[in-house]
Automatic annotation (TrEMBL):
Gene3D superfamilies: Ribonuclease H-like superfamily/Ribonuclease H. Residues 266-305 have a biased composition (Low complexity). Transmembrane segments: none annotated. It comes from Mytilus edulis (Blue mussel). Keywords: Coiled coil. The lineage of its organism: Eukaryota, Metazoa, Spiralia, Lophotrochozoa, Mollusca. This is Integrase catalytic domain-containing protein.
Length: 370
């Protein structure tokens, strides 16, 4: 969520919207000022044309002066050439919110909700709606706002309105305290909304293929249009997308998501075959490495045994030669006996160890047979 910062002065930035129709076929034209949260309400007849809107704004501007900017939705009266000519002549910047996203003009929507609640109560009690609206505005304008802590009248006119309630305390607001309180409350609301919605940052950029949310015609309709769009521009939460026909649309970034192209069955099968071949090759490599390790281990161990036996043979031969030189033994039988005692060079299987069988002490009188 992106929150709007507090304007530098009163009546610089305003927002306008329509509320209705009422049971009497009338509409309410509401205007709220962002700095003080001052609310203006004009009851209109069945017509909500651009000329009627201009007449209502002229009466407000006569009292408060011209604002710097005005924010509206994309209603027909606000996008008409008549209204565009009016704001251009008075040097007012017209800011139109993102289509299909009323939360972009949340301040006026919140004011309309409170006003609608008051009118529902008046209608249930069979009271005059016009009179009850004026009563509501008197109370609202003189009551400290929950966000700024100061009443709208005090922030707009720098004075408190006199009401039927006795007030002996002279209140004066500090602009720094108002701004700190406003930013704290907005940040608290932003944190709550982001946590509740599991909001995350959007990494989409111009040139990406995206899907755009569509109006569902029936229960079987998909939430997003299956045909991909191209993202052209992105400014904050507002994006501009274009379809294959060249038509452009302005939407909020929550109405789009990244388009991931589905892979064909042939590509999927080929990828599976390649992955299986890679697994088989890796298994064969592991088997070959294990065989090499086993073979190398067996050969090394046999070579070591042969070498040790050769060393033993050479040592015994040296001893025999020394004996012949010293004692002059030439007896053929003696030499044959020595040759029989020399082990052969062929590798022999190791003999299994045998356990000594001993007779228990309590069976000394018995003879143990072999």
């Amino acid at each position: 969520m992106i929150r709007m910062s507090l304007p530098s002065k009163p009546w610089e930035q305003i927002s306008a919207d329509f509320l209705g129709p009422l049971p009497s076929r009338e509409y309410l034209f509401t205007v709220v000022e962002y700095y003080s949260r001052w609310l203006e309400v004009t009851i209109m007849s069945k017509s909500t044309s651009a000329d009627r809107v201009i007449d209502a704004l002229d009466k407000m501007f006569t009292i408060h002066g011209l604002p710097i900017s005005i924010a509206t939705d994309n209603g027909p009266q606000f996008i008409s050439d008549t209204f565009k000519k009016y704001v251009d002549q008075h040097g007012i910047m017209h800011r139109r919110i993102t289509p299909l996203w009323p939360a972009a003009n949340g301040e006026i929507e919140r004011q309309n909700r409170s006003l609608l609640k008051r009118m529902r109560i008046a209608n249930a009690e069979k009271k005059n709606l016009s009179t009850e609206i004026q009563t509501y505005l008197k109370m609202y304008r003189s009551t400290p706002h929950c966000t700024t802590g100061v009443s709208p009248a005090e922030l707009l006119f720098n004075r408190t309105l006199r009401t039927k309630l006795p007030d002996i305390q002279m209140r004066s607001h500090d602009d720094t305290k108002v701004r700190d309180r406003d930013s704290q409350r907005k940040e608290k609301g932003k944190l709550y909304a982001d946590t509740r919605r599991n909001a995350t940052t959007n990494d989409l950029k111009a040139g990406d293929s995206v899907l755009v949310k569509q109006n569902r015609g029936n229960k079987l309709s998909t939430t997003f249009n299956p045909k991909p769009f191209t993202l052209l521009e992105k400014h904050g939460n507002s994006v501009v997308v274009q379809n294959d026909g060249g038509d452009t649309y302005k939407r909020n970034d929550t109405h789009i998501k990244r388009f991931i192209e589905r892979k064909s069955s042939e590509n999927v099968n080929s990828e599976n075959v390649n992955s299986e071949n890679q697994n088989v090759n890796s298994k064969n490599q592991n088997v070959n490495s294990e065989n090499q390790n086993v073979n190398s281990g067996n050969v090394n161990s046999e070579n070591q045994n042969v070498c040790s036996e050769n060393q033993n043979i050479s040592s015994e031969n040296q001893n025999v030669l020394k004996g012949n030189q010293n004692g002059g033994i030439n007896d053929k039988a003696h030499s044959n006996k020595l040759m029989k005692s020399v082990p052969s060079l062929e590798p022999t299987k190791p003999s299994r160890p045998t356990r000594d069988r001993k007779l228990p002490s309590r069976y000394k009188d018995f003879v143990l047979s072999n």
